[in-house]
Fold each of these.
Amino acid sequence: LAAALGMTAAMAGACAEERAAVLEASAWSAPTSFDVSQRVLGPAAQPLVALERTGSTVAIAKLGDHKLAFVADEDGAAIRVVDPETLTQLTHHRLDGKPSQLTIGGDGRLWVALRDRSQLVGLELRGDGDARELHEVRRVSTPAEPVGLAASPDGKTLAVSAAWGQELAIFAIPEGRAVASHALAREPHGVAISDDGAYAYVSHTVGSQVSRVPLSGDTEPVALRLAGVDLTPIVRFRGCFMPIGRQGVDFRGGTDNNHHDRKAVQGFAVAITERSVFVPEVLVHRGEATTGGYGTSSSYPTHQPALVQIDTSKIGDEASGEGVSIRVMNKAFLAKQARERFAGGIRRDGCFLPRAAATDRKRGSVLVSCLGTDEVLAFDSERGPLSTSARGRWKVPAGPMGIAVDAEAGTALVWSQFASKLSQLDLPEAPADHAVKKIRYPSTASRPVRSAELAPLPADERQGVALSALAQEGRTIFHGAGDTKISRDGRACASCHPDGRDDGLTWPTPNGPRQTPMLAGRLAEHTAPFGWQGDTKSVSEHLTQTLQRLGGKGLSNHELQALIAYCHEMATPPPKQEQPAAALVRRGEQLFNDQTVGCAVCHTDAGVGSDGSRHGVGSGPELETPSLAFVAGTAPYFHDGRYASLTDLLRDSKGKMGWGAHLGEPDLEALEAYLLTL
Ligand code: HEC
Ligand code: HEC
């Protein structure tokens, strides 16, 4: 590569200078473009050696004969460098954006994805002892909203998932050259690369699938479907679904209670071993069509935590469920305590909001962190899908968003973002003969060996980054899985509104089927009233209705205000990097605002507002005009989710919504291009 760029000794000298300078990000563009002005980076001054290739919010690396831990502190917009043994912070590196994940590349550098800036940053360590610091040496653009990262086994490439951009982008490091990009379904999140470097596995927070993306060759990504996977053998084998409490519940009975209808959501994390890929998910069962709430039923859970295991040797090049097995999480673990957490036969202490996962190959375990219940669970990774129970569990500080395992040292680090605490878990002694079955995890929920609060960053460094104190409280309530004040069956707001967005599902409600709306950036005055029917005048009134539907006991006024503050402050998606052609967008905007087409009459404020009135637009009941803010990423569409795409919506509703019956194909394309920019 150096030769290809005509790199000379003189240039190598210039590289040193260049490293000191802050590098401008090259714009994200289709692969093959390579900004040659970004000269080649030599070896890192102090090369880090990764313990794990799969990204997380925390990573452990070897530097010579000691170890360092790196934490992506999203609230503080900083990387914290910590001694993994004592958990003391050694230094921090302030970023100009929110770090979502980090990992260490084969070049010995720390690579960080900046979620809100849609950039990938390369950092290296300089200096000694206490004067050690991170320095930025590379910065490149990624598709919109990079959230997951993984390094290839040779350490020469990074796979970056872009949640809002719906892509997996592959970069060669250290240059940061984009080598490939693959369009994926909605909200890709966790990424892991197989040991042979052939495939990246990508979880999706909505949409019931895991994507397998080939890293070389010209085969297409494959969607591994998580709906309709047969859970019956698991139910029969161990009766694990309803181990205690109510009897007679299974996945097979009745048409409404058909497991083929289950959809998987909350696929935030991926962990990988030599043979298997693990994705913690939550299987959603939406219940009967008539309900007093959101699919609430007393006889079966609407949200069932599960661990998806993919046998990588069985995956073909076609989309199918082959090789995919799903085990229900949290079998009769600690039966006595569990009984108290039951609500009418439904467990309330489940891992409803899994956020991070990591494998411990030495002990044959997968560790999963659960938001809301604030736990880390350990599952067997070697015995196949029939073993469903957690082997061990730890209670951790609020908001566990990342796990890093140091299998040799027998510890795991967990980053709890809400509490701003890093904890060290003690992993059990592993027998030398690799008899993983003999390993004894603590039988009751244990505490971390050590937990340290990473001091807040100086106030002037936090300006404009962090949520207000009230909204932070609200965030905890929003993710309060298992909180009876919110729901009777353990569901949290984030169960249906992951990351403040939507689960892509249509729920039964007393008013009929209603698709979950995105919240982030959509709850301003100009979008009132709320709910598809517009039957609640304020967010506060709407939340009172929500808690009724969920069977929650209700929040205090202060808690309600905190929840509302969070709903207003939650991060909106960053702009899409690849916008449709400007001329097409302008034409679409004209049409949208054209009196004879009429869109803007109802969809006010350039589409993101609402006229606040109900209309019949040929879709059934009269509904209040919804805000179209961020409509590009909220498929499916309409109150009942009848349209899979905007393309379908515009063609089918033509002349029924607005007066656009006369619009031709090019006009509809222009309108769609405009909608994609809102
Ligand atoms: C079971 C899934 C589910 C859960 C859990 C849930 N919601 Fe919703 N949310 C929905 C659906 C479906 C709608 C549309 C309701 C309607 O139109 O009647 C909605 C609507 C909303 C709206 C109105 C949005 C708008 O633009 O009109 C807000 C605000 C909201 N939810 C916040 C919350 C909060 C806060 C929580 C937790 C207390 C929560 N939701 C829990 C599914 C859910
Ligand atoms: C008479 C008022 C009115 C007019 C005019 C109107 N809309 Fe709508 N729009 C609505 C209503 C009401 C809904 C909700 C329909 C439903 O959910 O069944 C809606 C839904 C939508 C949605 C789906 C939003 C979502 O999140 O599912 C899109 C996109 C949309 N409109 C675009 C347009 C465009 C483009 C035009 C102009 C051609 C237009 N609308 C004209 C009232 C209107």
Amino acid sequence: VLFALSTSHEIGLAVTGALFITYALLSSFVFPHYWPNFPGRKGLRWYIPLSCLFFVAMLSAVVVFGRENKVASAAATTTSTQTTTTAAPPSSGKYAGGDATSGKALFTSLGCGACHVFTPAGSSGPIGPNLDDLADYAQHAGIAVDDYTAAAILTPPPKYIPPHTPPYPNNVMQPGGGHTLTDQQVKDLVAFLTASP
Ligand code: HEC
């Protein structure tokens, strides 16, 4: 925990702690040794309030100096999420001009839905990755989603295969899903698969 604290707070905590421990040791071993009556009846008048003061000081030091820990680690978490979330590259436009409606018809007639879950197509095939999350896969791969989708269809395997138990089979998805696709058909499929819901 101490390592997570900034130096100044660490020092504050350490100094208060050291004072507290020194005080405790002095009053339990050193003072009674030289002054057997310690703290004595008169001494109690300052000894009790002083002990309380030290106790409160130690508690507040932990509260005050220790608090930064939470703030700092919260800040650290925020920074790390920000650095790991890389924005997906924008669409390359290479597959512009596709028609999502034709893409939907193709998806069904070519049998893609037999292997893939894809909600806009109403399909629930259990063999391959869930295509509802295609944008996430492209982001993992750091490739624009339209380029990513076209490559995944034309030249499998894709760059990112989501973890799954058992792992998705690697040579089941044939190029074009087992079909020779025209350029327009690829564009239509890309348009359908990458359309924002
Ligand atoms: C026989 C089952 C099967 C058929 C049919 C099939 N796929 Fe696939 N698909 C898979 C599997 C398995 C994977 C992941 C592993 C791989 O490709 O090596 C995959 C991967 C994909 C991916 C990439 C997913 C990722 O992880 O990024 C896309 C996109 C895709 N398929 C689209 C299609 C389209 C469009 C069709 C229809 C033309 C189709 N698939 C037909 C099984 C199939």
